[in-house]
Amino acid sequence: MKKLFLMAVMALATVSSFAQQAVGTFTIQPKVGLNLANVTNGDGDIRVGAVAGAEFEYQVSDIFSLSAGALYSMQGCKGETEGVDATVKLDYINVPILANVYVVKGLAVKLGIQPGFNVTHKASAKVEGVSASADLPGVKSVDFSIPVGLSYEFNNFVIDGRYNFGVSKIMDGSDSKNSVFQFTLGYKFAL
Questions:
Q1: Best label site of 37, 57, 155, 176, fewest CB within 10 Å?
Q2: Which residue has the higher pLDDT, 11 or 168?
Q3: What is the domain count for the chain?
Q4: Contact at 8 Å (CB) between 62 and 16?
Q5: What is the β-pairing status of strands 26-39 and 189-190?
Q6: Is residue 151 included in any domain, yes or no?
Q7: What angle do CA 67, 95, 105 make, to 5 degrees?
Q8: pLDDT tens digits for 8-37?
Q9: What does 143-183 look like in DSSP terms, one character per residue?
Q10: Could you give the 3-state DSSP secondary structure of residue 13?
Q11: In this structure, what CATH number is given to the domain that contains residue 76?
């Protein structure tokens, strides 16, 4: 582990001009993609959902930029027990604030913080063809996570993959947290 860390530090120290955008520029990146979401400390399965929004980026130096955005994110989980199909929909407006380090031309490592604001908190179930749904009580209106990931930019197209580590409990009386793999495709426009 120490050798890997040392190699990463040396690689970053020897990096020269790897940014796709010029220093001091702002860009906006509309993006759409796919979430593979679940909650921790539960026995649920992955809920596949959409993610869409935009991120702004400021190129601080040749190898470092800061970004912030707003993304509509479909999260939650699914499950099936004894003939009952259940889905927990926990949808958020997430605000990722990220530090981006370009390790080679076009390839960035990302790390940051992400507050999320709950907009949907429903549970639905289907038993023998009969469906029912209801709002979940006790869901917290604000969620915090730590996004970590990679992105690759080519000709202003950006492929991004992240994992959002949930750090706050999603509802009262539960230790469950959000756990989301997110994959997006975007396009950068200079401002």
A1: 155
A2: 168
A3: 1
A4: yes
A5: antiparallel
A6: no
A7: 25
A8: 545 544 444 454 689 999 999 999 999 999
A9: EEEEEEEEEEEETTEEEEEEEEEE-S-SBTT----EEEEEE
A10: helix
A11: 2.40.160
Reported as a pLDDT band with limits 50, 70 and 90, residue 2 is low
In the chain, the amino acid numbered 171 is M
Residue in this structure with the two tokens 């950068």, named with its chain if needed: 188
**Per-residue tokens: 112:** 């940051």
Residue type, 77: C
Distance CA 17, CA 95 (A): 28
pLDDT for position 3: 57
| Cα–Cα distance for residue pair 101/107, rounded to 1 Å | 8
Helix spans in the chain (H): 2-13
Cα separations (Å) of 185 from 22, 26, 79, 88, 111?
Answer: 21, 19, 28, 26, 18
Nearest to 179 by CA among 167, 170, 168, 166: 166
What SS3 state is found at 129?
A: coil
Host domain of residue 74: 27-143+159-190
Return the residue matching tokens 């992400």.
114
* 51 found inside a domain: yes
Tokens, residue 83: 């003939």
